[in-house]
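Expect chain and fold; thus:
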Amino acid sequence: MNRHILIGRLGADDQAVIACGRDEMATEVRLLTPTRRLGHGVGQALVDLNRLNVYPTELGLDLAFVAAMVHAADTRISRASESQDSWTREIRLAIPVSDAPLWTSATPILNGLLNFLTGDRWTIAFRARPSASVSLATPVPARLIGPPFDGVALFSGGMDSLIGAIDALHAGRAPLLVSHAGEGAVSKSQDDCFALLRQKYPGRPFDRLRVWMNFQDGLIDGVASENTTRGRSFLFFALGVFAATGLEAPFALNVPENGLIALNVPLDPLRLGALSTRTTHPYYIARWNDLLRALGLDGRIVNPYWDKTKGEMALACADPGLLKVAAPKSLSCSSPSKGRWNGRPTEHCGYCLPCLIRRASLLTAWGPGADVTPYTLSDLTARVLDTRQAEGRQIRSFQFAAARLKKKPRLAKLLIHKPGPLDDDPSKLDDLAGVYSRGLSEVDALLTGVQTKPS
């Protein structure tokens, strides 16, 4: 095990001395290139936003730096080798920002937010940017008309964010859609879905920001990369807020996610740690809103579908015709490239947790046979599925969870608390228990007649 500190540097003149412990491994992350261009996709994102008449603030730019540092640590520090228990890492970040006292006052919220999200132990310290980098954001030009967008929404390429965009556009809104362009299949889904939205609403002022942020393998000397990416939603949320600081008005960042996935209640007693993510959990979103308030940002993060199952989202979509055309282009699978070793194309596997919820939702909304998405495992009932293999593991967990709830329906009100606290708004507890129960029922209906057993 090693404890790690990542030190953000803004240019050659950033020579601040950062004290390191004896057992800490220090790595520098260059946030500014030798040509004084903002690195790791942040500079290009700033250029792209300026082209859209959006000018993020220095505080927004700080948040992009924080996101870059968190993303570097989360994806380039192996849990297997760098933790005592093969999971919990100890990570310290030292980040230059425009207002160090303000950020320092918000540090307890930020540390707690990240600890909850990733299961690691984060310690973040802030210092003032070097004098040559005090002003890095593009000044807002003199103009008569501000940015055309009335809000920001995350646009992942998945079906929930697709429905969120369709509903917003159908309601006459003009969102700025923010995407992180990473793995190729995800990027293609984002492109394909956005193209269909453009085709449907050609004269509307909505648009998209795509941010490319990746760090090379070997960023940390002698340490392997990490593939669990539990911190990815911090990056997504931060990029959304970064863009939203340029809207010159109180903003809402919409994070479209169905309630079953947002709660992510463990399906069985073994589904903890790496198997139970918290990327859009209500507690996590509430802590983000605490962070925005602490930073003095006039905005909030909202999941408009927190009380809807994925099937209910699809059924109530404002433009069902567009959704039927676009849904096959969206991507829900957790590992769409895993079939390539067997000569399969990039596609939905059909048996991972998000694939099962997707299939169940479209069965609920459209009925049998209407989902034309290609799935590697297209027929779940064709044979007995092995619960010791990936194809049967998630299915057996869903079967267990559904059977448990059928036997004792009142358990829903207890189980929803397992992934994290829900005491920010007690008035929502019955609705949360309801969406959990209905979401499981959707998947249970999909699994009618499916047989599983260990090999």
